[in-house]
Specification:
alpha/beta; Helicase, Ruva Protein, domain 3; 30 strands; Rossmann fold; 4 domains; seven-stranded mixed sheet
Length: about 700
C-alpha cells in the first residue's frame, strides 16, 4: 500500500497519463504524508478555546440585582429570538465542564475517550463536537486496485482528500479511450470477416458470415472485462468534506463497522465482478482522521471488540468478507488506514460487559469521564438554560420562539427533574423533547410565541409510554384501593412509592402482632414481593423495635403486608419509617392518623435518612386526599411540587423516628409515654446533635 501526497504524484492531474506513478507491487506500508506535517498552530489555538465559558449573547440585558431570585437568572428578553446561538457545536453543550475539558485535551492530543452516564446527558453531542475540532488538512482518500498477481488481495492506496476522484476519473477516461479503440477495431474485423464469408462461393455464406460476426463480438466483449478491472474503486471519498469525519457505529454489525466484501454469485463464465469492486468500507475506515462514536459499547459482540482493539492499536485494518459462506470471505485487502479517535459511551453497566482489554486500551491511550446528571443551580446556569431553549428552537426550525414565562416554566421543570436541592437536570434530551412538544402545541393553537400554558399542557402530553402505563395503572387501582373510612387505625400507615420513574403512588402498609409459631424465637413475615433492599430495610426496622419495646419479641411474630404492591413488588428502603410506624402501632395498640402519609429511610439508631423521588411522592399523597405528609428533613430543599398541590397538603420534615411517631400516632397519654420511652433509649445522640445545631449529618441521596 502506498501513501502519496500532491507533491509526489503530479502526473495524476494529466488525464492522458492517469497514473504513471502508481506501483502496484509496492507493499512497503504507509509512507509519511506531508499533510501530516502541516503546521497545526492555528488548530491548537482553536483547541485552547474549547470548553470556553460562552455566556448568553444577543439583544439581551441582565439584571444582576434580581438574578438570584429570578428563574431566568436576571435575563431580560422579549423572547428567545433575542438570544444568539453559538456557532461552534461544543459551545452549545450545557454543563458537563469536566467532560468538555477532557474532550479538549483528547482532540488536541489525539486520545480516545470513554463517557459513562445516563442517556440524554450529551455524550453524542460532545463526540460530534470533537470531530469539528480536528484538522481537515489531514483527511485522505482511499482507493482500491485490482491486483494482477492475486485478484483476492486487492491493493490499497491513500492520497490527500480530493485527489482520489481525479485518479478515478483519469482511469475511467483512459479506459473509455481504450474501449473506443477496441470497438473500432472490432467492427473493422467484423466487416472484413463478413465480407470474406460472402465472397466464398458456398450455399452457407449467410450463416458463415453471421457466425463469424458473432464470434468476433463475443471475443472482444469477453476480453474487454480485463481492461475494466484496471479502474480503481474510490473506497473513501473526503473531497467534499468540510470537517473531520464523525461515524456513529452504535449497534453496527461486523460488516458495517469493520468493512466487508460483497458476495458475487457470478464467479465464472467471464461475468464475475472484480474483487476490488466488491470491497466496502466500514465505520472504522470511514472514521480515519476523525471520530468513531460507539454508544452502548458493551452490546458489541466479543469478536467485533477484539477486531476493534486491533484497529485501535495498529491504526490500519484489512477488509475481508465477514460471512464465511460468502465468496467475499476469500478476499482480503491490504491494510486500510483507520487512524481514528474512538469515543465509547454507555451506562454504568457498559463497563461490566465490556471486553477488559478494549477498556484497557482506551484507558491506556485516553481518558474515562463520568457524565453528570445534575449541575448547581446558579443565575449563570439559568441563563444558559434559556440559551438551550433558543438552541432547540433554532435547531428544529418549525417552532415559535418562547416567551420569558414559558422559559421560566421549563427551568422550573429542570429543577424538578434534578430531584436534588439547588440543582438543575442535565438530561437535556428529555427536556428538549418537552421544548418541541410545547412548541408544537403553540403552533397548533396559532400562538405567535410559545406561552407558559403551552409548556404546562406539554408536560401532560409528553409523558413516556412507561409513565402513561403507570398512570393508567394507578387510576385503575383507585377503583379497588383499600381505603379506610375512619380517621385513625391501628397498624395501618399510608406509605409512598415511585413507579415508572416519576409517577408517585400511595402504598398502604399494614402490621399485625401474633403469638410466635416457633418455640425458639419470634419471626418477621413480610409480604408484597419485597426485593433484597426492601427486605434488609425490614430487618433494620426490627432492630429498633427490639431495642425500645418492653415486649418480649421472641414470643411474638410480626406480620407486615405491603397492600396492593402490584406485580413489580417493592424495592428500596424508602418505606422504612412506614414499616416501623405500622409495627410500633400494632405492638403498642396505638392508632395512626389516616389523613397522613410518609416516606423516609431509617438507620438502626432511629435516624430518618433521605430518599429519592420525594416530590412525586408528595404529589401522590395530595392526589390521594392526604392532608399531611412526613419526609426526611434532608429532603426538605428537594421539594419542587406543582403550585396546585401547595395548598392541599402540609409537609412535615423530620430527623428521627421519635418525631415520626409524635406526628403519626393518635392518643395523647399512650403516645406521649411511648415517645418519651423511645427518646430515653435512643434519643441521647439526637439530643446532643440538637444541642450542637446539627441534624446528624444525613447523607444526600444520589
Amino acid at each position: 500500500m502506498r501513501n502519496e501526497s500532491t507533491n509526489d504524484a503530479p502526473p495524476d492531474d494529466d488525464p492522458d497519463d492517469p497514473e504513471p506513478s502508481v506501483d502496484h507491487d509496492d507493499t512497503d506500508g504507509l509512507q509519511d504524508d506531508p499533510a501530516d506535517s502541516v503546521d497545526d498552530a492555528g488548530e491548537v489555538d482553536d483547541l485552547e478555546n474549547l470548553g470556553s465559558d460562552v455566556g448568553v449573547e444577543g439583544d439581551v440585558s441582565i439584571d444582576e440585582d434580581n438574578a438570584e431570585d429570578d428563574l431566568l437568572g436576571g435575563l431580560r428578553i422579549d423572547d428567545t429570538s433575542d438570544i444568539t446561538v453559538p456557532d461552534r457545536l461544543v459551545d452549545q453543550v450545557i454543563g458537563q465542564e469536566a467532560a468538555r475539558e477532557i474532550v479538549k485535551r483528547a482532540a488536541k492530543q489525539h486520545r480516545h475517550v470513554m463517557m459513562i452516564g445516563s442517556p440524554g446527558t450529551g455524550k453524542s453531542l460532545l463526540a460530534k463536537a470533537m470531530s469539528r475540532l480536528l484538522p481537515k488538512e489531514s483527511l485522505q482518500d482511499v482507493l482500491v486496485y485490482h491486483n494482477p498477481d492475486d485478484s483476492n488481495e486487492p491493493k490499497v492506496r491513500t492520497v490527500p482528500a480530493g485527489k482520489g476522484e481525479q485518479i478515478v476519473d483519469a482511469h475511467k477516461e483512459e479506459a473509455r479511450k481504450r474501449n473506443q479503440m477496441r470497438s473500432f477495431l472490432m467492427w473493422i474485423m467484423i466487416l472484413l470477416a463478413v465480407g470474406y464469408a460472402l465472397l466464398i462461393a458456398t450455399p452457407a455464406r449467410p450463416l458463415l458470415a453471421l457466425l463469424s460476426a458473432a464470434g468476433i463480438y463475443l471475443l472482444f466483449r469477453y476480453t474487454n472485462r480485463g481492461s475494466d478491472a484496471m479502474v480503481p474503486k474510490l473506497l473513501i471519498n473526503n473531497a467534499d468534506r468540510q470537517v473531520a469525519p464523525f461515524e456513529d457505529a452504535t449497534g453496527a454489525h461486523a460488516g458495517a463497522m469493520l468493512g466487508d466484501v460483497r458476495h458475487d454469485p457470478f464467479q465464472s463464465g467471464g461475468m464475475a465482478t472484480p474483487s476490488h469492486e466488491r470491497v466496502e468500507a466500514g465505520s472504522i475506515q470511514k472514521a480515519n482522521k476523525g471520530v468513531l462514536f460507539i454508544d452502548e459499547i458493551n452490546t458489541l459482540d466479543v469478536r467485533s471488540q477484539q477486531k476493534l482493539m486491533t484497529a485501535i492499536q495498529e491504526g490500519e485494518f484489512s477488509i475481508t468478507g465477514q460471512s464465511e459462506r460468502s465468496s467475499g470471505a476469500m478476499v482480503q485487502t491490504e491494510a486500510v488506514p483507520c487512524d481514528f479517535i474512538m469515543v465509547a459511551a454507555g451506562n454504568m453497566d457498559a463497563m461490566e460487559n465490556m471486553h477488559p482489554a478494549l477498556r484497557s486500551r482506551i484507558k491506556g491511550y485516553g481518558y474515562e469521564v463520568y457524565m453528570d446528571d445534575t449541575i448547581e443551580d446558579t443565575p449563570d446556569m439559568r441563563r444558559k438554560y434559556a440559551r438551550f431553549v433558543a438552541q432547540e428552537v433554532e435547531k428544529d426550525g418549525n417552532l415559535p420562539h418562547f416567551a420569558p414565562d414559558a422559559i421560566r416554566e421549563l427551568i422550573l421543570e429542570a429543577k424538578r427533574r434534578a430531584g436534588r436541592k439547588d440543582s438543575l437536570t442535565l438530561k437535556l434530551r428529555d427536556l428538549g423533547g418537552l421544548v418541541r412538544v410545547a412548541g408544537d402545541i403553540a403552533r397548533s393553537e396559532g400562538h405567535d410565541l410559545t406561552q407558559r400554558s403551552d409548556v404546562l399542557e406539554a408536560k401532560k402530553r409528553s409523558r413516556s409510554i412507561e409513565q402513561q402505563f403507570v398512570d393508567n395503572y394507578i387510576q385503575r387501582r383507585k377503583d379497588y384501593e383499600l381505603g379506610t373510612t375512619s380517621e385513625e387505625a391501628v397498624g395501618r400507615v399510608n406509605g409512598l412509592a415511585v413507579m415508572g420513574g416519576d409517577s408517585g403512588i400511595m402504598l398502604p402498609v399494614m402490621a399485625e402482632i401474633t403469638p410466635a409459631q416457633s418455640q425458639e424465637e419470634g419471626r418477621i413475615y413480610a409480604t408484597g414481593q419485597l426485593k433484597e433492599m426492601a427486605e434488609e430495610a425490614v430487618e433494620n426496622v426490627s432492630a429498633i423495635i427490639k431495642k425500645f419495646s418492653d415486649e418480649n419479641m421472641s414470643e411474638k411474630d410480626t406480620h407486615i403486608q405491603f397492600v396492593q404492591a402490584g406485580e413489580g413488588g417493592v424495592d428500596g428502603d424508602s418505606a422504612s419509617i412506614t414499616v416501623a410506624t405500622a409495627v410500633i402501632s400494632a405492638l403498642e395498640d396505638i392508632p395512626v392518623a389516616q389523613e397522613l402519609a410518609m416516606t423516609g429511610s431509617l438507620s438502626v439508631r432511629g435516624d430518618v435518612l433521605p430518599v429519592g423521588g420525594v416530590t412525586h411522592k408528595i404529589e401522590a399523597a395530595a392526589k390521594a386526599g392526604c392532608e399531611r405528609v412526613i419526609i426526611p428533613k434532608a429532603n426538605e430543599d428537594d421539594v419542587m411540587i406543582e403550585d396546585e398541590y401547595e395548598e392541599q397538603i402540609e409537609i412535615i420534615p423530620v430527623t428521627h423516628i421519635s418525631e415520626v411517631l409524635d406526628v403519626a400516632l393518635v392518643g395523647e397519654p399512650e403516645k406521649d409515654s411511648l415517645v418519651d420511652r423511645l427518646k430515653s433509649i435512643t434519643g441521647k445522640a439526637l439530643d446532643s446533635a440538637s444541642d450542637s445545631g446539627t441534624t446528624g449529618g444525613n447523607p444526600s441521596p444520589q
